[in-house]
Amino acid sequence: LVRRQISVARRRLDRQITVMCFIRVIAFICLAAPYCCYRIYAVNNPVSRSEPLEFANRQLVHVIFASLASLNFGISFYLFIISSSHFRRQVKFILVKKCWNRWKNLCCFRNNEITPENIVVNNLNMIIEEIN
């Protein structure tokens, strides 16, 4: 096999995507493992509703671990922002250059020009003063 030369920029981007994937896998393990372990424990050691304090404690632990596990679905964006400078630049470009300018043009800042009120232009492009 002939080894092809890969550009430095391509290697840097490959390294960044590898780091991003590695961080995502670590976050998934850290956030999903406690919930999985708790569910295994809860299935093997059930508690009855006749013991309200123990039942309430288990419900609290269940809600905490379920909340941590649900972070898996929303944390990717923030992890990628932290781990990748290229991703940060792209997000900044999209938010500032595209979305902010569109929002600014649509809602906030209208054309602030002064125009005369009593002037009408006829078909010959001559200015005729409107008579009230």
Description:
It is flat, with a radius of gyration of 30 Å. A hairpin with a 5-residue loop joins strand 1 and strand 2. By secondary structure, it is mainly alpha-helical. The longest helix has 37 residues. Helix 1 packs antiparallel against helix 3. Strands 1-2 form a two-stranded antiparallel ribbon. The protein has 4 helices and 2 strands; from the N terminus they run ααααββ. It has 2 domains: 83 residues, no CATH class; 47 residues. The protein starts with 7 loop residues before the first helix and ends with a strand.
In short:
The chain has 132 residues and is mainly alpha-helical.
Distance between the termini: 88 Å
Strand content: under 5%
* Oligomeric state: single chain
Tally of extended strands? Answer: 2
> What is the string of helix and strand elements?
HHHHEE
How would the global form be characterised?
A: flat
Task: Provide the domain count.
Answer: 2
- The assigned structural class equals mainly alpha
Q: What is the helix tally?
A: 4
Strand order of the largest sheet: 1-2
Features of the shown structure:
132 residues, mainly alpha, two-stranded antiparallel ribbon, 4 helices, 67% helix, flat, transmembrane, transmembrane helix, G-protein coupled receptors family 1 profile domain-containing protein, membrane
